[in-house]
Design goal:
This protein has 137 residues and is an all-alpha fold. It contains seven helices and no strands. The protein is globular. The N and C termini lie far apart (42 Å). The model has no long low-confidence stretch (mean pLDDT 76).
Length: 137
């Protein structure tokens, strides 16, 4: 509860956005990430940390940006999953079940459609570049 009350402070959210974006973007640029994934990630952070109210348009924007970011760079899910999970828990804590469900479904549908497409074409839900390099059975 203390963390959620702290998150409601606009100053804390803007400071968190600045620090998180600064650290994450510097890590991204060192590893020569595509401009698309960096732009999507910074847009996701801007929406996640600076929204005024968690309304349906904000939720759709977060879900769409999160799904597109994962499609642009599959391991980007490790960066946005904690933020997205916190926002889902924040919605559940406020008893906004429909908003939490939409936040869960939009990225799943976005990435799931792509994975079904890959499975139909190649027989594996992962991109071929990853499945060729993988030692996982």
């Amino acid at each position: 509860m203390i963390l959620i009350n702290l998150y409601k402070s606009k100053t804390i959210r803007i400071l968190g956005l600045f620090l998180f974006s600064l650290v994450s973007a510097s890590c991204y640029f060192w590893y020569m990430e595509t401009a698309l994934s960096v732009t999507l990630f910074l847009s996701y952070c801007a929406v996640a940390f600076t929204y005024k109210e968690l309304n349906y348009s904000t939720i759709i924007a977060l879900g769409s940006l999160g799904g597109l970011l994962v499609l642009a760079r599959m391991d980007a899910i490790l960066l946005i999953a904690p933020i997205h999970a916190f926002l889902i828990l924040f919605s559940i804590d406020d008893k906004k079940w429909s908003k939490a469900l939409i936040m869960i479904l939009i990225p799943i549908l976005t990435v799931g459609t792509y994975m079904l497409f890959l499975y139909n074409i190649s027989g594996t839900p992962m991109p071929l570049s990853g499945s060729v390099k993988s030692t996982f059975p």
